[in-house]
Design a protein that fits this description.
Layout (H helix, E strand, L loop, with lengths): L6 E4 L3 H12 L4 E4 L11 E4 L2 E4 L12 H8 L8 E3 L4 E5 L2 E4 L2 H7 L5 H13 L2 H5 L6 H6 L5 H15 L8 H14 L3 E3 L4 H13 L3 E3 L4 E7 L2 E7 L4 E3 L2 E4 L3 H9 L6 H9 L5 E9 L8 E5 L11 H4 L9 E4 L14 E9 L7 H15 L7 E7 L1 H8 L29 E3 L11 H15 L3 H6 L1
Parallel strand pairs: 1-2, 1-13, 2-9, 6-15, 13-19
Antiparallel strand pairs: 3-4, 5-8, 6-7, 10-11, 11-12, 14-17, 14-18, 15-16, 16-17
Length: 468
Protein backbone atom coordinates (compact mmCIF):
# COMPACT_ATOMS: atom_id res chain seq x y z
CA UNK A 1 0.00 0.00 0.00
CA UNK A 2 1.32 3.40 -0.97
CA UNK A 3 2.16 5.84 1.80
CA UNK A 4 1.30 8.86 -0.38
CA UNK A 5 -2.12 10.50 -0.09
CA UNK A 6 -3.82 13.75 -1.05
CA UNK A 7 -4.94 14.44 2.52
CA UNK A 8 -4.31 12.87 5.91
CA UNK A 9 -6.89 13.39 8.64
CA UNK A 10 -5.77 12.86 12.25
CA UNK A 11 -8.74 11.79 14.36
CA UNK A 12 -12.21 10.43 13.62
CA UNK A 13 -14.28 12.81 15.73
CA UNK A 14 -17.20 14.52 14.01
CA UNK A 15 -14.95 17.20 12.47
CA UNK A 16 -12.42 14.62 11.28
CA UNK A 17 -14.95 12.16 9.91
CA UNK A 18 -16.92 14.95 8.21
CA UNK A 19 -13.95 16.53 6.42
CA UNK A 20 -12.71 13.07 5.47
CA UNK A 21 -16.10 12.22 3.96
CA UNK A 22 -16.38 15.52 2.09
CA UNK A 23 -12.90 15.28 0.60
CA UNK A 24 -13.23 11.61 -0.34
CA UNK A 25 -16.54 12.32 -2.07
CA UNK A 26 -14.81 15.13 -3.99
CA UNK A 27 -12.22 12.69 -5.31
CA UNK A 28 -9.36 13.24 -2.87
CA UNK A 29 -7.27 10.25 -1.84
CA UNK A 30 -7.88 10.39 1.93
CA UNK A 31 -6.19 8.58 4.80
CA UNK A 32 -7.91 8.90 8.20
CA UNK A 33 -5.94 7.82 11.26
CA UNK A 34 -7.65 7.18 14.61
CA UNK A 35 -5.68 6.49 17.80
CA UNK A 36 -8.47 4.50 19.49
CA UNK A 37 -10.28 1.29 18.69
CA UNK A 38 -13.55 3.22 18.47
CA UNK A 39 -14.19 5.95 15.90
CA UNK A 40 -16.01 9.15 16.82
CA UNK A 41 -13.82 11.02 19.33
CA UNK A 42 -16.11 12.41 22.03
CA UNK A 43 -19.12 11.23 20.02
CA UNK A 44 -18.96 7.48 20.47
CA UNK A 45 -21.06 4.67 21.85
CA UNK A 46 -19.85 1.46 23.42
CA UNK A 47 -21.28 -1.63 25.09
CA UNK A 48 -21.00 -2.13 28.84
CA UNK A 49 -22.59 -5.07 30.62
CA UNK A 50 -24.84 -5.67 27.63
CA UNK A 51 -26.04 -2.05 27.51
CA UNK A 52 -25.15 0.40 24.74
CA UNK A 53 -23.86 3.66 26.21
CA UNK A 54 -22.75 7.01 24.83
CA UNK A 55 -19.61 8.82 25.87
CA UNK A 56 -21.39 11.97 26.92
CA UNK A 57 -25.05 12.75 26.38
CA UNK A 58 -25.42 14.33 22.97
CA UNK A 59 -28.65 15.68 21.60
CA UNK A 60 -28.44 16.98 18.07
CA UNK A 61 -30.28 20.26 18.28
CA UNK A 62 -30.88 20.73 14.55
CA UNK A 63 -31.03 17.05 13.61
CA UNK A 64 -31.98 16.44 10.01
CA UNK A 65 -32.09 20.15 9.12
CA UNK A 66 -28.64 20.94 10.54
CA UNK A 67 -24.99 20.67 9.53
CA UNK A 68 -24.62 17.02 10.56
CA UNK A 69 -27.24 16.10 7.98
CA UNK A 70 -25.81 18.58 5.48
CA UNK A 71 -22.58 16.60 5.39
CA UNK A 72 -24.58 13.46 4.53
CA UNK A 73 -26.49 15.32 1.84
CA UNK A 74 -23.28 16.65 0.31
CA UNK A 75 -21.78 13.17 0.07
CA UNK A 76 -25.01 11.77 -1.42
CA UNK A 77 -25.86 9.62 1.60
CA UNK A 78 -28.98 11.42 2.89
CA UNK A 79 -30.27 8.45 4.91
CA UNK A 80 -26.96 7.59 6.55
CA UNK A 81 -27.94 8.91 10.01
CA UNK A 82 -31.08 7.20 11.41
CA UNK A 83 -32.63 10.24 13.09
CA UNK A 84 -35.39 10.01 15.72
CA UNK A 85 -37.05 13.35 16.43
CA UNK A 86 -38.23 14.58 19.81
CA UNK A 87 -41.92 13.68 19.92
CA UNK A 88 -43.14 16.36 22.30
CA UNK A 89 -42.24 14.56 25.54
CA UNK A 90 -39.74 17.20 26.60
CA UNK A 91 -40.07 18.79 30.03
CA UNK A 92 -38.44 21.40 32.23
CA UNK A 93 -38.38 21.07 36.01
CA UNK A 94 -37.58 23.86 38.45
CA UNK A 95 -37.41 22.62 42.03
CA UNK A 96 -40.26 20.11 42.19
CA UNK A 97 -42.41 21.88 39.57
CA UNK A 98 -42.24 19.96 36.28
CA UNK A 99 -43.96 21.34 33.17
CA UNK A 100 -44.02 20.57 29.46
CA UNK A 101 -41.13 22.42 27.78
CA UNK A 102 -42.70 25.43 26.04
CA UNK A 103 -42.09 29.16 25.99
CA UNK A 104 -45.19 29.58 28.15
CA UNK A 105 -43.89 27.21 30.80
CA UNK A 106 -40.66 29.20 30.99
CA UNK A 107 -42.66 32.40 31.35
CA UNK A 108 -44.54 30.73 34.22
CA UNK A 109 -41.34 30.12 36.17
CA UNK A 110 -40.43 33.83 36.14
CA UNK A 111 -41.90 36.25 38.68
CA UNK A 112 -45.12 37.83 37.48
CA UNK A 113 -43.65 41.32 37.86
CA UNK A 114 -40.85 40.48 35.38
CA UNK A 115 -42.78 38.24 32.99
CA UNK A 116 -43.37 40.91 30.35
CA UNK A 117 -39.67 41.81 30.35
CA UNK A 118 -38.79 38.14 29.90
CA UNK A 119 -41.21 37.92 26.99
CA UNK A 120 -39.53 40.93 25.38
CA UNK A 121 -36.20 39.11 25.65
CA UNK A 122 -37.65 36.09 23.85
CA UNK A 123 -39.18 38.28 21.19
CA UNK A 124 -35.84 39.97 20.53
CA UNK A 125 -34.25 36.61 19.67
CA UNK A 126 -36.46 36.40 16.59
CA UNK A 127 -36.71 40.06 15.65
CA UNK A 128 -33.09 41.16 16.06
CA UNK A 129 -31.48 42.41 12.85
CA UNK A 130 -28.13 41.14 11.59
CA UNK A 131 -26.61 44.52 12.42
CA UNK A 132 -27.87 44.34 16.01
CA UNK A 133 -26.69 40.75 16.34
CA UNK A 134 -23.24 41.56 15.01
CA UNK A 135 -22.69 43.91 17.96
CA UNK A 136 -23.19 41.10 20.44
CA UNK A 137 -20.44 38.62 19.55
CA UNK A 138 -18.22 39.82 22.38
CA UNK A 139 -20.98 40.62 24.87
CA UNK A 140 -21.68 38.00 27.59
CA UNK A 141 -25.10 36.36 27.69
CA UNK A 142 -25.45 37.59 31.26
CA UNK A 143 -25.16 41.25 30.23
CA UNK A 144 -27.73 40.76 27.48
CA UNK A 145 -30.24 39.10 29.84
CA UNK A 146 -29.79 41.82 32.42
CA UNK A 147 -30.50 44.48 29.80
CA UNK A 148 -34.06 43.11 29.92
CA UNK A 149 -34.54 41.75 33.43
CA UNK A 150 -32.76 41.08 36.72
CA UNK A 151 -35.19 38.32 37.69
CA UNK A 152 -32.93 35.53 39.02
CA UNK A 153 -35.02 32.71 37.54
CA UNK A 154 -35.15 34.41 34.15
CA UNK A 155 -31.38 34.53 34.14
CA UNK A 156 -31.07 30.93 35.34
CA UNK A 157 -33.41 29.68 32.61
CA UNK A 158 -31.38 31.38 29.89
CA UNK A 159 -28.13 30.28 31.50
CA UNK A 160 -29.40 26.71 31.55
CA UNK A 161 -29.65 26.78 27.75
CA UNK A 162 -26.37 28.61 27.23
CA UNK A 163 -24.57 26.20 29.53
CA UNK A 164 -26.11 23.16 27.82
CA UNK A 165 -25.27 24.48 24.35
CA UNK A 166 -21.69 25.57 25.01
CA UNK A 167 -20.72 24.14 28.43
CA UNK A 168 -19.50 27.53 29.61
CA UNK A 169 -21.26 29.87 32.02
CA UNK A 170 -23.45 32.74 30.86
CA UNK A 171 -21.11 35.38 32.26
CA UNK A 172 -18.54 34.45 29.59
CA UNK A 173 -20.66 32.81 26.84
CA UNK A 174 -21.03 34.87 23.65
CA UNK A 175 -24.44 36.49 23.32
CA UNK A 176 -24.50 36.40 19.50
CA UNK A 177 -23.41 32.75 19.48
CA UNK A 178 -26.20 31.94 21.92
CA UNK A 179 -28.89 33.90 20.09
CA UNK A 180 -28.05 32.26 16.75
CA UNK A 181 -28.17 28.81 18.33
CA UNK A 182 -31.31 29.46 20.38
CA UNK A 183 -33.12 30.95 17.40
CA UNK A 184 -32.24 27.97 15.21
CA UNK A 185 -33.30 25.41 17.82
CA UNK A 186 -36.59 27.15 18.61
CA UNK A 187 -37.45 27.75 14.95
CA UNK A 188 -36.53 24.36 13.51
CA UNK A 189 -37.95 22.14 16.25
CA UNK A 190 -35.72 19.42 14.82
CA UNK A 191 -33.86 18.22 17.92
CA UNK A 192 -33.12 14.54 17.45
CA UNK A 193 -31.21 11.49 18.65
CA UNK A 194 -30.14 8.64 16.35
CA UNK A 195 -30.99 4.97 16.51
CA UNK A 196 -27.97 3.01 17.68
CA UNK A 197 -26.69 5.88 19.84
CA UNK A 198 -24.19 8.64 19.14
CA UNK A 199 -21.95 6.21 17.32
CA UNK A 200 -24.39 6.27 14.39
CA UNK A 201 -23.38 9.82 13.45
CA UNK A 202 -19.64 9.14 13.48
CA UNK A 203 -20.12 5.82 11.69
CA UNK A 204 -22.08 7.52 8.88
CA UNK A 205 -19.07 9.70 8.10
CA UNK A 206 -16.58 6.83 8.34
CA UNK A 207 -18.78 4.79 6.00
CA UNK A 208 -18.70 7.70 3.54
CA UNK A 209 -14.90 7.90 3.67
CA UNK A 210 -14.70 4.20 2.83
CA UNK A 211 -17.43 4.35 0.20
CA UNK A 212 -15.46 6.95 -1.73
CA UNK A 213 -12.23 4.95 -1.59
CA UNK A 214 -10.70 6.57 1.45
CA UNK A 215 -8.61 4.56 3.93
CA UNK A 216 -9.45 4.41 7.65
CA UNK A 217 -6.94 2.99 10.15
CA UNK A 218 -7.97 2.65 13.81
CA UNK A 219 -5.61 1.98 16.72
CA UNK A 220 -3.03 4.04 14.83
CA UNK A 221 -1.98 6.98 17.01
CA UNK A 222 0.05 9.72 15.34
CA UNK A 223 3.32 10.52 17.09
CA UNK A 224 4.49 13.42 14.97
CA UNK A 225 3.50 15.67 12.08
CA UNK A 226 6.44 15.91 9.68
CA UNK A 227 7.52 19.46 8.82
CA UNK A 228 9.91 20.06 5.94
CA UNK A 229 10.89 23.38 4.37
CA UNK A 230 8.29 25.24 6.40
CA UNK A 231 5.36 22.98 5.51
CA UNK A 232 3.49 20.03 7.02
CA UNK A 233 4.07 17.14 4.62
CA UNK A 234 3.19 13.95 6.49
CA UNK A 235 2.88 12.05 9.75
CA UNK A 236 4.76 9.40 11.68
CA UNK A 237 2.71 6.99 13.77
CA UNK A 238 3.72 5.66 17.16
CA UNK A 239 4.44 2.34 15.42
CA UNK A 240 6.96 4.12 13.19
CA UNK A 241 4.91 4.12 9.97
CA UNK A 242 5.32 7.19 7.77
CA UNK A 243 2.54 8.59 5.58
CA UNK A 244 2.83 11.61 3.30
CA UNK A 245 0.35 14.18 1.97
CA UNK A 246 0.44 17.88 1.03
CA UNK A 247 -2.66 18.47 3.20
CA UNK A 248 -2.61 17.46 6.88
CA UNK A 249 -5.85 18.00 8.80
CA UNK A 250 -5.92 17.65 12.58
CA UNK A 251 -9.11 16.69 14.35
CA UNK A 252 -7.06 16.24 17.53
CA UNK A 253 -6.94 18.77 20.33
CA UNK A 254 -5.66 22.06 18.91
CA UNK A 255 -3.18 22.70 21.70
CA UNK A 256 -1.88 19.14 21.50
CA UNK A 257 -1.42 19.50 17.75
CA UNK A 258 0.57 22.74 18.00
CA UNK A 259 2.55 21.92 21.13
CA UNK A 260 3.09 18.20 20.66
CA UNK A 261 2.46 16.80 17.19
CA UNK A 262 4.09 19.72 15.36
CA UNK A 263 6.13 21.72 17.87
CA UNK A 264 5.81 25.39 18.75
CA UNK A 265 9.04 26.28 16.89
CA UNK A 266 7.22 25.86 13.57
CA UNK A 267 4.68 28.62 14.26
CA UNK A 268 4.88 32.41 14.67
CA UNK A 269 5.31 33.42 18.31
CA UNK A 270 2.07 35.41 18.40
CA UNK A 271 0.16 32.34 17.19
CA UNK A 272 1.75 30.12 19.84
CA UNK A 273 0.97 32.69 22.53
CA UNK A 274 -2.66 32.78 21.42
CA UNK A 275 -2.96 28.98 21.37
CA UNK A 276 -1.44 28.71 24.84
CA UNK A 277 -3.98 31.11 26.34
CA UNK A 278 -7.05 29.36 24.89
CA UNK A 279 -9.48 27.96 27.46
CA UNK A 280 -11.78 24.95 27.28
CA UNK A 281 -15.42 24.27 27.98
CA UNK A 282 -16.34 22.75 31.31
CA UNK A 283 -16.02 19.09 32.23
CA UNK A 284 -18.91 16.75 32.82
CA UNK A 285 -19.96 13.79 34.92
CA UNK A 286 -22.38 11.25 33.46
CA UNK A 287 -25.05 9.42 35.39
CA UNK A 288 -26.53 6.30 33.79
CA UNK A 289 -29.37 4.40 35.39
CA UNK A 290 -30.72 1.06 34.19
CA UNK A 291 -34.28 0.44 35.38
CA UNK A 292 -35.90 -2.97 35.73
CA UNK A 293 -38.96 -1.73 33.81
CA UNK A 294 -40.03 1.25 31.77
CA UNK A 295 -41.17 4.01 34.13
CA UNK A 296 -41.71 6.99 31.83
CA UNK A 297 -42.39 8.03 28.23
CA UNK A 298 -40.56 11.32 28.73
CA UNK A 299 -37.62 11.68 26.36
CA UNK A 300 -35.97 14.70 27.99
CA UNK A 301 -36.23 16.55 31.31
CA UNK A 302 -34.14 19.66 31.94
CA UNK A 303 -33.68 19.85 35.70
CA UNK A 304 -32.95 23.08 37.58
CA UNK A 305 -32.82 22.63 41.38
CA UNK A 306 -32.99 26.37 42.12
CA UNK A 307 -32.15 29.76 40.61
CA UNK A 308 -28.42 29.29 41.32
CA UNK A 309 -27.88 25.85 39.78
CA UNK A 310 -28.65 25.65 36.07
CA UNK A 311 -27.61 22.50 34.18
CA UNK A 312 -24.05 22.24 32.90
CA UNK A 313 -22.70 25.04 35.09
CA UNK A 314 -19.76 24.57 37.43
CA UNK A 315 -20.89 26.35 40.59
CA UNK A 316 -18.73 28.15 43.15
CA UNK A 317 -19.57 25.36 45.57
CA UNK A 318 -18.07 22.77 43.21
CA UNK A 319 -14.94 24.84 42.70
CA UNK A 320 -14.42 24.85 46.46
CA UNK A 321 -14.34 21.06 46.37
CA UNK A 322 -17.85 20.62 47.73
CA UNK A 323 -20.56 18.53 46.11
CA UNK A 324 -23.94 20.31 45.88
CA UNK A 325 -26.87 18.59 47.55
CA UNK A 326 -28.73 18.65 44.22
CA UNK A 327 -27.16 19.13 40.79
CA UNK A 328 -28.85 20.57 37.72
CA UNK A 329 -28.65 18.46 34.61
CA UNK A 330 -30.22 17.31 31.37
CA UNK A 331 -31.91 13.93 31.83
CA UNK A 332 -32.94 11.81 28.90
CA UNK A 333 -33.92 8.27 28.02
CA UNK A 334 -32.02 6.94 25.00
CA UNK A 335 -34.28 3.89 25.00
CA UNK A 336 -37.31 6.15 24.49
CA UNK A 337 -35.78 7.06 21.13
CA UNK A 338 -34.48 3.58 20.30
CA UNK A 339 -35.82 0.67 22.43
CA UNK A 340 -32.82 -1.43 21.43
CA UNK A 341 -30.58 0.76 23.61
CA UNK A 342 -31.86 -1.04 26.71
CA UNK A 343 -32.42 -4.76 27.38
CA UNK A 344 -35.98 -5.95 26.58
CA UNK A 345 -38.55 -4.59 29.02
CA UNK A 346 -36.05 -2.28 30.72
CA UNK A 347 -35.23 1.42 30.45
CA UNK A 348 -32.06 3.50 30.35
CA UNK A 349 -32.02 7.04 31.71
CA UNK A 350 -28.90 9.16 31.30
CA UNK A 351 -27.94 12.61 32.48
CA UNK A 352 -25.04 15.01 32.05
CA UNK A 353 -23.91 17.43 34.76
CA UNK A 354 -21.08 19.95 34.86
CA UNK A 355 -18.27 19.31 37.30
CA UNK A 356 -14.64 20.27 38.03
CA UNK A 357 -11.91 18.48 36.01
CA UNK A 358 -11.18 15.90 38.71
CA UNK A 359 -13.85 14.50 41.04
CA UNK A 360 -12.23 11.16 41.91
CA UNK A 361 -11.50 12.17 45.51
CA UNK A 362 -15.20 12.38 46.41
CA UNK A 363 -16.89 10.07 43.88
CA UNK A 364 -19.16 8.59 46.55
CA UNK A 365 -20.53 12.05 47.34
CA UNK A 366 -21.07 12.76 43.65
CA UNK A 367 -22.94 9.50 43.22
CA UNK A 368 -25.21 10.26 46.17
CA UNK A 369 -25.95 13.78 44.93
CA UNK A 370 -26.60 12.63 41.38
CA UNK A 371 -29.01 9.96 42.58
CA UNK A 372 -30.81 12.46 44.83
CA UNK A 373 -31.24 14.66 41.77
CA UNK A 374 -32.37 11.66 39.71
CA UNK A 375 -35.11 10.81 42.21
CA UNK A 376 -36.25 14.44 42.27
CA UNK A 377 -36.97 14.09 38.56
CA UNK A 378 -38.12 10.45 38.57
CA UNK A 379 -39.66 9.66 42.00
CA UNK A 380 -41.44 6.72 40.39
CA UNK A 381 -38.03 5.04 39.95
CA UNK A 382 -37.77 4.12 43.64
CA UNK A 383 -37.42 0.36 43.96
CA UNK A 384 -36.84 -0.12 40.23
CA UNK A 385 -33.20 0.86 39.85
CA UNK A 386 -31.23 -2.14 38.68
CA UNK A 387 -27.79 -0.65 37.97
CA UNK A 388 -26.10 2.74 38.33
CA UNK A 389 -22.95 3.97 36.58
CA UNK A 390 -21.20 7.28 37.32
CA UNK A 391 -18.58 8.29 34.75
CA UNK A 392 -16.18 11.15 35.63
CA UNK A 393 -14.24 13.39 33.18
CA UNK A 394 -11.35 10.94 33.27
CA UNK A 395 -13.45 8.56 31.13
CA UNK A 396 -13.55 11.16 28.35
CA UNK A 397 -9.81 11.67 28.70
CA UNK A 398 -9.21 7.94 28.56
CA UNK A 399 -11.53 7.03 25.71
CA UNK A 400 -11.37 10.13 23.51
CA UNK A 401 -7.75 10.99 24.19
CA UNK A 402 -8.65 14.61 24.77
CA UNK A 403 -8.56 16.92 27.78
CA UNK A 404 -11.76 15.50 29.23
CA UNK A 405 -13.80 18.66 28.60
CA UNK A 406 -17.27 18.26 27.11
CA UNK A 407 -16.80 20.18 23.85
CA UNK A 408 -13.32 21.68 23.34
CA UNK A 409 -12.14 25.28 23.07
CA UNK A 410 -14.91 27.22 24.83
CA UNK A 411 -17.26 29.53 22.92
CA UNK A 412 -16.50 32.42 25.23
CA UNK A 413 -16.55 36.10 24.29
CA UNK A 414 -12.83 36.08 23.51
CA UNK A 415 -12.95 32.81 21.52
CA UNK A 416 -15.81 33.17 19.02
CA UNK A 417 -16.34 34.65 15.56
CA UNK A 418 -13.22 36.57 14.45
CA UNK A 419 -11.46 35.68 17.72
CA UNK A 420 -11.89 31.93 17.21
CA UNK A 421 -8.91 29.89 15.98
CA UNK A 422 -9.11 29.42 12.22
CA UNK A 423 -9.27 26.05 10.45
CA UNK A 424 -6.28 27.26 8.40
CA UNK A 425 -3.09 27.32 10.45
CA UNK A 426 -0.11 29.62 9.76
CA UNK A 427 1.97 26.51 8.93
CA UNK A 428 1.64 25.65 5.25
CA UNK A 429 -0.19 22.37 4.71
CA UNK A 430 -1.69 22.16 8.22
CA UNK A 431 -5.40 22.60 8.86
CA UNK A 432 -7.91 21.96 11.65
CA UNK A 433 -11.39 20.47 11.48
CA UNK A 434 -13.03 20.19 14.88
CA UNK A 435 -15.12 21.91 17.53
CA UNK A 436 -11.97 23.89 18.38
CA UNK A 437 -11.40 25.82 15.16
CA UNK A 438 -13.79 27.90 13.07
CA UNK A 439 -17.45 27.10 12.76
CA UNK A 440 -20.39 27.98 14.95
CA UNK A 441 -23.21 26.11 16.64
CA UNK A 442 -23.67 23.56 19.37
CA UNK A 443 -21.22 20.78 20.19
CA UNK A 444 -21.11 18.19 17.44
CA UNK A 445 -22.86 20.60 15.09
CA UNK A 446 -20.06 23.10 15.73
CA UNK A 447 -17.59 20.44 14.57
CA UNK A 448 -19.64 19.76 11.44
CA UNK A 449 -19.73 23.46 10.50
CA UNK A 450 -15.96 23.57 11.00
CA UNK A 451 -15.58 20.72 8.51
CA UNK A 452 -17.94 22.26 5.97
CA UNK A 453 -16.15 25.61 6.21
CA UNK A 454 -12.74 24.01 5.76
CA UNK A 455 -13.94 21.97 2.78
CA UNK A 456 -15.29 25.09 1.10
CA UNK A 457 -11.97 26.85 1.70
CA UNK A 458 -9.64 24.17 0.33
CA UNK A 459 -11.68 22.23 -2.24
CA UNK A 460 -11.45 24.99 -4.91
CA UNK A 461 -7.66 24.98 -4.43
CA UNK A 462 -7.25 21.23 -4.86
CA UNK A 463 -4.95 21.30 -7.89
CA UNK A 464 -2.67 23.96 -6.40
CA UNK A 465 -2.53 22.29 -2.98
CA UNK A 466 -1.77 18.84 -4.36
CA UNK A 467 0.88 20.27 -6.65
CA UNK A 468 2.66 21.60 -3.60
Amino acid sequence: MSNQYDAIVIGSGIGGGAIGALLAHAGWNVLLLERNKHVGGRCISYERNGVMMDLGWHFYCLGKVGPLQEVCNRVEMPDAIPWNDLNGTSYIQVGSDQQKYTKQSMYNFVSEAERDNFKRLFSSVFTMTDEELDKLWYVPVKDWVQSYTYDPMAYTLIESFAAQYFCVSADVASCAEFILAFRAVMSSRATAYPSGGNFSVALAYIDAVKKYNGTVKTETPVKEIIVENGAAVGVITEAGEEFRAPVIISNADLKLTVQGLVGEEHFPKEYVDRVNELTYSSHGVMLRVLLSEKITDKQVVIYIPDDKSPPCKVTDEMLEGKVPHLIGGCFGSPSNFDPNLAPPGKQMITSLHACPPDIRANMDEWRESLMRSFYEVYPEAHGKVEKVWVDPPSLVRGMAGETGCIIGIGQTIDQVHEKRPSQISPLKGLYFSSSEAGGNGIGTELAATSAIGLFEAIAPQKDALLAG
